[in-house]
Amino acid sequence: MQPHVNLLHLIRLIKRIIFNPKHKKMKMKILASALMLVSILSVQAQDNMVQSTIQGTLAYNQGQVVSLAEAFSEELYSWRPAEGINSVGEALLHVAGGNYYLLSKMGFAPPEDVDMMNIGKIEGKENIIAALKKSNAFVLEKIVLIETAKLGDEVDFGFSKMSTLSGILTVMEHNGEHKGQLIAYARSNDVVPPWSK
To answer: Average pLDDT of the chain?
Structure first.
């Protein structure tokens, strides 16, 4: 059962006791105990609210990036707007690598079968999308494991020292930044983002 369902059941039970004339002497004790219990349940229900909210928003954005990755043809995976700029495939792998890198700085090592030194060398549309999806799932799983009390802890990400919460938001921002890049790549090649159709 969800915490709010249990809370409603508890409130109904308390109301029956309070409004029953047989329980006059116990009303204050029951009411005080009930209020304390409601407070505890409310705090528990709100724990991880920030992480869960970010997880939901990130999952939506990740879904858009994956759907856009799927909309590009295999041939367009090597397309780049100019020399020295990431291709479509390289941009997607950059997002995947960034997911693992940022979470590793927050204490979550990449899965053993992920070769961080060679993630950028993955080839082929199907393989690149699989690597992106795997990194996305990893991030979504780990974000909600971060304890609320640790959101303010300072983390050295290499490029900046910031709080754990800022690191989680950076994961989301990084995904959004490259979604924008990939939208520009798509529009330059007459590929319509699937959610725009």
So the answer is: 87
Nearest to 139 by CA among 91, 97, 100: 100
Q: Are residue 72 and residue 111 in the same domain, yes or no?
A: yes
Condensed to tens digits (0 to 9), the pLDDT of residues 100-124 reads: 999 999 999 999 999 999 999 999 9
d(CA 187, CA 152) in angstroms, rounded, equals 39
Domain range for 21: 3-46
Q: How many CB atoms lie within 10 A of CB 18?
A: 15
In 3D space, the residue among 68, 45, 78, 82 whose CA is nearest the CA of residue 178 turns out to be 68
Transcribe 100-125 into DSSP letters.
HHHHHHTT-PPPTT--TTTGGG--SH
Q: Indicate the pTM of the whole model.
A: 0.77
- Cβ–Cβ < 8 Å for 122, 128: yes
Number of separate domains in the chain: 2
The answer to whether residues 58 and 140 belong to one domain is: yes
In tens, the pLDDT along 78-90 reads 999 999 999 999 9
